[in-house]
Structure formats: C-alpha cells, structure tokens
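Changelog-linked ticket: zinc ion example.
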Amino acid sequence: MAVRWLDFLFPPRCLACGAGVDRQGHLCPRCFDGLVFLVGPLCRCCGRPLPDTAVPDPLCAACHRKAPSYARLRAALAYHGVGRELVLRFKHGGRLEGVERFAIWMEQAGRELLDEAELVVPVPLHRLRLLVRGFNQAALLAQRLARRAQRPWHPSLLRRIRPTRSQQGLGEAQRWRNVRPAAFHIPAGMRPRIAGRRVLLVDDVVTTGATLHACTEVLLEAGAAAVDALALARVVREEGSGPI
Ligand SMILES: [Zn+2]
Ligand SMILES: [Zn+2]
C-alpha cells in the first residue's frame, strides 16, 4: 500500500522523456526502443562495436596500433539519442530511481569484468561538486554492481583532488587538459588495498576516455595488477577514428 501511495504522490515517469509509465524506474516503450545496447561483436579491449566478423575475440585497429592503459572497457549503452538523455537526467536531473535497472544492464555488458574484479571503485567527484549535486552517480552504480556480483568495493579510495570543470561542452583537447592524472589521488594508507589487485573502475559515461585514462594511470601507479572499466554508456566512434 505504501508503494501505491508513493506512486500516487510521485507518479512514475519515463527515465528518459518524463512521460507517464506504469512502474517507477522504467522507460516508456518508445524510449526503450530508442536505446542502443552494445552487444557483440565488440573489440576485446576497448569494447567498440565492430562489423560482423568470424574472428573470435576481435581487436579493433586503434587497440592494435596502441593498447590503451586499461585492460578492457565495456558499456551497456551507446551515448547518443535516448541513451544520452537517460544519462543526463540521471546525472544532472537527479533521476535516481533507474539506478537498479542501470546496474542490471551494466552487469550484463560487463559480466566477465565483474567476475574477475577484486575491487570495484567508482570514478570520484570532487568534494565540492559532491556537495552541490548531493550524490556521485558513479558511486551509486559501483555500489549496486558490487552488491549484485558480491565483490568488494570502496567509494572513496580514489579521490579527485582538483575541482575540474564539468566536461560538458568542452572540446576533446580541452577535456584531456581538464582531467590529467594529477587531478586524481590515492592516499598512501589506501595503497595496500590496491596493490596486486585487479580493479574495476565504474563510471556513468565515457566520452573521450580522458577521465578513464587518468584514473587508470593513478591506479596502476598505486600497484593495481590491471584496470578494467565498466560504464552505463559510452560514445561510439567509427572504427579507425582513434581509441577511447
Ligand atoms: Zn520515454
Ligand atoms: Zn579497441
């Protein structure tokens, strides 16, 4: 009955367009049809969708040329259209009721990464931004994922020490300047928790890969055995247009 009253006071709304839906944390059929789930064949390293191929575990041209610092990246959705709207409403609009569903999609996209993860760590927000926003969307996702896969997680092991500008609206070169490894820090006392472990870094969205790269560098420098990354959504670039 309590849930009914809650639905009465806060009628369930589509997570992407705001239209009325029958259950909290869902999308309307039109928006759901507009989502692009990233399913194989994918580059075994960066997770970029590849044209149909008979090759098992294919590698894209960009990763073949230069392996990224992270071991593997996977994301549930393409970051455009409805997928982008969904992430923006989650992040900036505080539409948190979808987090459980997002974690299920991410678990499906990154099952192997989760199974092998020895520590789950969210991409951190600077404390001032956390104060303003009131939540770290990456930490909410990391917590749900770790709980579902029964993996240890730590919300504040990796810290953002420079209040970087929001990445929104920045060009690619500006984004790389904005999030250099120096923007992140792991306190000395936390390092033993990372040493020799396979770390799974969790974020809501990967656009240029600059944040992911900076966090990976810092984790490897602190002794992580390897770093995988799992995101709710990612920009999907054409094959041959460079790595994420
Ligand atoms: Zn909708
Ligand atoms: Zn690749």
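Closing comment: Example verified and attached. The two ends are 47 Å apart (CA to CA). The chain has one domain: 13-234.
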